[in-house]
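User: Please fill in residues for this 150-position structure.
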């Protein structure tokens, strides 16, 4: 999943870099003040910049000529993306249902555990009371034996 996001981010970064390249070097094609550096740079990479600008001009011209097609393709892309969101939402709904069932089972187990703990606490109270009663009886027996011997 993270690879898909990485590819999207890199694609957008490449597009932004390309647009920035065109914007920066469009200025070198017709600089207002021709300095020696600009002239040398223009002569060295001028063919590349000119080709990129020409290609971008062709693409922009094609988009202007086929405006309705571009809008239709964009609408189709938005519709397909909406479909993927719908599909993902359906999957999340099914997952939430499974998770809800798991939580219900967990609550049932927690109630049983709490009931068992309460029963164990009650048994411990009864055991404590029985041991105190046994201690009392043993003391009385010890006192009675001491009195009969003494």
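Assistant: Residues filled in for all 150 positions:
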């Amino acid at each position: 999943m993270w690879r898909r996001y990485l590819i999207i981010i890199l694609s957008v970064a490449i597009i932004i870099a390309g647009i920035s390249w065109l914007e920066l070097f469009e200025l070198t094609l017709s600089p207002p003040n021709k300095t020696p550096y600009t002239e040398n740079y223009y002569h060295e990479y001028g063919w590349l910049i000119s080709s990129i600008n020409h290609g971008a001009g062709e693409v922009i011209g094609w988009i202007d000529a086929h405006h309705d097609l571009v809008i239709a393709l964009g609408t189709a892309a938005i519709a397909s993306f909406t479909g993927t969101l719908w599909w993902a939402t359906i999957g999340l709904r099914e997952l939430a249902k499974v998770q809800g069932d798991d939580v219900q089972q967990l609550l049932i187990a927690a109630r049983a555990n709490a009931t068992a703990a309460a029963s164990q606490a009650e048994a411990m109270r009864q055991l404590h009371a029985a041991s105190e009663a046994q201690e009392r009886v043993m003391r009385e027996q010890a006192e009675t034996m001491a009195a009969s011997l003494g």
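For context: Residues 6 and 41 are 34 Å apart (CA to CA).
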